[in-house]
Specification:
By secondary structure, the protein is an alpha+beta fold. It has 28 helices and 19 strands.
Length: 573
Amino acid sequence: MDKKQLERCSSAVTLSDMEVFVFPELMYSLVLANIMSPRLWLWREDPWFHGIRKLKPYRRLQRLKQYIMEHYVFNLDLETWGLTNQARELARFESFLTPEVIAQSNALFGYTGDAYYFDMDIRTHFGLDKYTSDIIPYWKTETIEAMDAFRHREGFSAGAGECVSLAALYASALFVVAGIPLEKIFLMATPLHSQNFIDEGEGILINNRRLVTKAMWFNGTQISGQARRALENERVTIVAHHTGFIHTLYPRATIQQHAFERFAKQLRSYLKTNLTPEILGNFLRQNPKVRDCFVLRWPINGINRYLLLEQAFRFEQDSTYKVTDETRERLMETIPIETFSAGYLPCKVVLNDIEAFVRTRDVNLENAEDVEDLKQAIGNVCMSASEIVGQLSLFCHTEPRLPDATSATFDTSEPAIPLTTSMTREEIIACIEALRAKNMTADMAFYAWRDLSRTSLEPFMLAALERNPVSQNGSTALSQHELLALVTSWPDESLYDGETRLAQPDEVWNFKRGDGLEKAILIAALLHARGAGPLLVVRKADQAQIENAEGVVIGSWASKKMHEGFSINIEPL
């Protein structure tokens, strides 16, 4: 295996965020690895999903979302997968992307994006401020098995994963469990986030553990405000689909052009709405600075009274009624009369008047005359009307910064992955395997799936020896005897089903369990890092053991993984 292919294949094993950025096919390889996983297919037997495919698509998504919310939490800390440094990783990737190009779009290597995310020190935000500027996190994207394993980790009572892990889990579960065709599922990565867009109805955005419909995108709540951040403030670097991918920095795109064009059209439609009185109110709910300029007029005993809009929204928080829809009257009835004022300051704008203008004029924010008249209606009594209308326009129409299709070369030499929701798991695995020679994503899926009966051992071991810093740092103070005793005390329980799928050393270390062969690889990797001489990890009978150059057994553990005679030679540093 040449160096470039070794780098790609080993990256499919470790699946860090930076590796997915450099090798964009890996994002969908992770989806396929989850689709092949028996762990995911067990969900179909859960009573929670009984009859799910008889439901309408959105109801299926809701059912799936609730399950994921109850079983997985978002996790993005520095301790789980440890740290590396920019120089080391840039050297790895220099034959694929130059450091200058990587820094254009990857937050770990210098990307500073829009002011929204970087008005504070981003390293402080992620807890990196205590390290030198060269240190970066080794955020690894978790397979479903590694996500499930978090329940064994101190401080966790359920599974966990970061945003790419959750996006991949959703995409695979939508297909396997909810029966949503792959052609409707698109994964999007920005420099700091990953989410899915489902081409169903008006469109549905899956953002970590939230489903966001078009109506929710524009409802002005805090939750939808959080969901909007990535698309409002970052460019989309990767779009992944069962037909391929398109990447901001690579001229070659493997996604089918018509699929990307359909996605772009649907996403743009999802992110755009007409201005109505309700949308105006939703905008003010989400924008406290502009909201402070408005008061609400309300008749009490036949006399107009006034309420600061900020106060009205405050009462809304504890009510099922809203300021912005037909339940406003009921909300007003719950507010004490003494809260209202007989008048309002001249620097305030009466919301009712602007609502009436919008309603009667049918304002089009893309029409210059309508925009100018709206500015006149609002006036400059509080803050610039141009600023208010400008922010309102951005609220009503987010233009996603997608990879440029006009400058991309769409390469159709790689076939789409033709999985259907009626296939069995065995048929799916056979289909993906049959595509390996023609489709890089399909080939890498087996490395992400960690199946050593279908992949070369070299990438797995390269990753095991070079990209597992947590176990190395955590075991520094332990003698060899103490290390052997500690690892031996852990349950002989692999995170990965089957005899040919193996965990990486840091997975064994973090979750304190593993098959004997996985334990042996962990110990051997740690001894190798300490400068040990040649080591042999070998499976003999029902044991996996480590031998030194003289054939002396260093440690031995019961194993059900791989086959009799399976061996790994580890040369000294």
